[in-house]
Amino acid sequence: MPNRALFSALLRLGDDRLVLGHRTSEWCGHGPVLEEDIALTNMALDLVGQATLLLQYAGEVEGAGRDQDALAYFRDALEYRNALLCELPKGDFGVTIVRQFLYGVYSVLQWEALSASTDTTVAGIAAKALKESKYHVRHAGEWVIRLGDGTDESHRRAQAAVDLLWPYSGELFMQPADEAALVASGVTADVSVFEAPWTAQVQAVLTRATLAAPDVAWMQRGGRSGAHTEHLGHMLAEMQIVARSHPGAKW
Amino acid sequence: MVATAFDRAQVLAWLDEVKDPEVPVLSVVELGVVRDAVMAEDGHVTVTITPTYSGCPAMREIESGIRDGLLAHGVTAVTVQTVYAPAWTTDWMPETAKAKLEAYGIAPPGRAETSDELVPLRRAGVLPRCPWCKSSKTELRSEFGSTACKSLCWCNDCGQPFEMFKAI
């Protein structure tokens, strides 16, 4: 059993949800309206919950005595394996919603595939998370349409968000080389096959929203191997400060 | 009391006394969180549970409620184990539990949606009737509510807000 590879694969899955979940939680108390504040924090809770299950399993697979909290709070940015898209600052409401949508569609495709994983723990987590992620995509997708096809100002901001985030979407579909054996044995799914269905689903909503994907020649990359933007370190500093200041504290 | 005097039905009846901390009108059995309970020869009871949502903060509370509840009935050893498959669905909720929810002021879940369309233009979902005045002139205010398992609705007849159990 290639445990090292499975550990890395679980970190990629878990870190995406943890980092995006934390970014989404930054809206707590800052939502544009009360209902949306609650919606964003609920989505953050789901994402952090998914991350908890994945990192807990990662810790078991690693077998070095690290649990989900140790992996979340005591790794530095270089050891994180999330896609760069997830760590970018939350931006305005448009950036948050467009990212939630772009990542959400990817997440649904990934959970659908992993629901059939030959690893029963991965399959169980995926089947559960799939329901939550579908809910997130529906919510975010409706907002993308509302913002894009709304006022001049909401359209301008939504289009700016698409332009900003699009160059970070390509990394989601770059299949890590060390997962070949896991994909062959049906434990994980090759992410490169999600690109075509993702593009079709995203384009359909962007068109309805009167938004357009920019033409970009270069896709940003690096997160999967630990080369992050400067934003992740700042985010982790805030996320990890309490656990690092009071190691082992319980409340 | 000797441990072998309990059977599965008895253990489940005791678990039916353990209420959900967020929706105290439903037991953890009615909610579908308890999937099974088995007792070993030596009286050790193993309860299998499944979370409602991945990040549901009530799960730890539910786990300790189950343990305390069984210990209070004379069970000497309890193990609570969590499984993720099959994934929890509100379709497991019996009609009696749905009636209790409505009487408590929470609209019960309809059938879980199975639509493949990720962002449907028109929702097929049926709006719930108001748990207070039973009017059907209601609207969905937010897909998300005070807990992970509920959405927020509004009744246009009696002018009251109410929550609805999300169908998933």
How would you explain this protein's 3D organization?
The complex is a heterodimer of chains A (251) and B (168). Chain A contains ten helices and no strands. Chain A has 251 residues and is mostly helical. The longest helix of chain A has 29 residues, at 34-62. The radius of gyration of chain A is 18 Å and the shape is globular. Chain B is of the alpha/beta class. Chain B is 19% helix and 20% strand. The longest helix of chain B has 14 residues, at 59-72. Chain B starts with 7 loop residues before the first helix and ends with a strand. The model of chain B has no long low-confidence stretch (mean pLDDT 89). Chain A binds chain B through residues 35-36, 38-39, 42-43, 45-50, 52-53, 105, 108, 120-121, 123-125, 127-132, 134-135, 137-139, 141-142, 145, 201, 204-205, 208, and chain B through 51, 53-57, 83-89, 118-121, 141-146, 148, 152, 166, 168.
